[in-house]
TrEMBL record:
Keywords: Membrane, Transmembrane, Transmembrane helix. The chain crosses the membrane at residues 6-23, 43-65, 85-104. It holds the Pfam family AzlD. It comes from Corynebacterium matruchotii ATCC 14266. It comes from the Bacteria. This is Branched-chain amino acid transport protein (AzlD).
């Protein structure tokens, strides 16, 4: 690999990083009262949890689904009860890891 190839890659990464950091500021005033962003921020946590759940389901070994189902139920209950995304994800993850370590459903 040539030196110029590496330098070019670094420059492209710097430019892309710079513009992804700078672009939101001029748009901030235009999007301040955006109905789309208001709805997006309302549904984003649920979307993130669905994506994480689908990914987790794709990696579940055969016959080991019980900790994941219990953790999903606990996560949903925590979220409905406390309305705190971080808390519900942390508690659900802890339940899943704890049940997996105890080999529940094996």
């Amino acid at each position: 690999m040539s030196t110029w190839y590496v330098v070019g890659g670094i420059i492209v990464a710097m430019v892309v990083t710079f513009f992804t950091r700078v672009i939101p500021f001029p748009l901030q005033t235009r999007l301040a009262n955006s109905g789309f962003l208001r709805e997006f921020s309302r549904w984003m946590p649920l979307g993130a949890m669905v994506i994480l759940f689908v990914y987790a389901c794709s990696t579940i070994p055969a016959g080991r689904w019980l900790p994941y189902v219990v953790a999903l139920a606990v996560t949903m209950i925590m979220h409905w009860w406390r309305r705190n995304v971080l808390l519900s994800i942390m508690v659900g993850t802890g339940v899943c890891v704890g049940l997996s370590l105890l080999q529940v459903g094996a």
